[in-house]
């Protein structure tokens, strides 16, 4: 999170709302900012003189050493003798191993690990039995402290290389503050989406097994890199214990041929069950967990789900079972229609003393405990005087949770959000908490025109919390630069685009663009650009 106070926009507070997953960085000093943003660790100018001469061939087997973590937790490795850089999934800092080159890309290559020679630093036993296969937690056998260090290093290098903030500046320690770790490392996620599939992912040694149709069915998480293969899981350590009870109950019954249930096949588009989404909230009266079970199906056939609903509703923590019907060939979990099969259509959760209703498709920060910490930090960074005189503009407001937590000390909160359902949820949440000084408006912040800003008074504080990963649109950046609000609080789940936006906001668009190393066209052509280009 970055707070950008005053017109000069010089002091930043950077922490990490995206704490639990290692995503990015490594030897960034040699990359162009655009490549960070696109997730490419382009390492063509490593400082090792031999590296230019060495270029591994596809299928070549090499001895490698992992130095640091890059985008999506990939290990940045160097060939022991030459220093040539390769990226390897599941290689962790300090590890020496044998790897096979699978792909050459520009001036670096990708490898698959064949055998570890000596383990990485900060090795811990991964508590989850699926950790070595599952795409969800690739760094579970790296100590939490080391994960936090790697993320902090990532943000630091992005701020320096992309954001153009100098670590030599005496201000840097106030710009980049240490990460606030989470006090729990498991069972913290309040939402998990599992997929049903007709093709079970199997480890290499079991690939020859012939499985009947039913045995090939799976419910779990996507195998990394496969949209059509599912790693079957009976429990997930990221979600709550009651959510694991529900998952186990569904696993016990859904393949029973008598139920006539079939998983949706993403190739043939036949089949019924698409996803199982489990959300954990809290019963406001008892303080105990209450859960929502969301079956996403390809058609509306409630009779087929009857037995599963009976079994699941017997679990005391289950407060809601809904069915999202998604008839499209796409594989998203948002249905065109939603039916309540048992209990309520929403569950509740509290944050900063307010109560929020959560429906199947509304956004809510996935780590409730850290959201409490994050929202307190946002309040601190917003620095509202508390006399009810100031106006807050909450951009990308979702269901209004942040704006509503600030409303008690503000004159008025104006929230902007593109999804109509989220805006409706925000209004409902305002009512639920007796808040009348908040207005939520549906609008696309990538398409703002000259008139944006004319419908509300000049804000004293702008909150931009978690715009989508491509970051802010240039139109919005230009609006904010012109607005000159005394404070901007920017929370991000993509530190690369956040660093780029901070460069624009703090140093001005013209200067920032001038300093960029690659011409715009290359960025556009790189294949990883956001659906819009902010350039
Ligand atoms: C990750 S959520 C964050 C919600 C809220 N700020 C919070 O932290 O709880 C991002 C929100 O931005 C909204 N959004 C994404 N692109 C948008 C756009 N172009 N204009 C307005 N809202 C957008 C999404 O619909 C979503 O509700």
Automatic annotation (TrEMBL):
Listed Pfam families: tRNA_U5-meth_tr
Annotated active site: 493 (nucleophile)
GO molecular function: RNA methyltransferase activity; S-adenosylmethionine-dependent methyltransferase activity
Binding sites annotated in the UniProt record for S-adenosyl-L-methionine: 365, 396, 417, 466
Alphabetical keyword list: Methyltransferase, S-adenosyl-L-methionine, Transferase
Highest taxon of the lineage: Eukaryota
GO biological process, one term: RNA methylation
Family per record: Belongs to the class I-like SAM-binding methyltransferase superfamily. RNA M5U methyltransferase family.
NCBIfam families assigned: rumA
Protein name, per record: RNA methyltransferase family protein isoform 2
Lineage, broadest ranks: Eukaryota, Viridiplantae, Streptophyta, Embryophyta, Tracheophyta
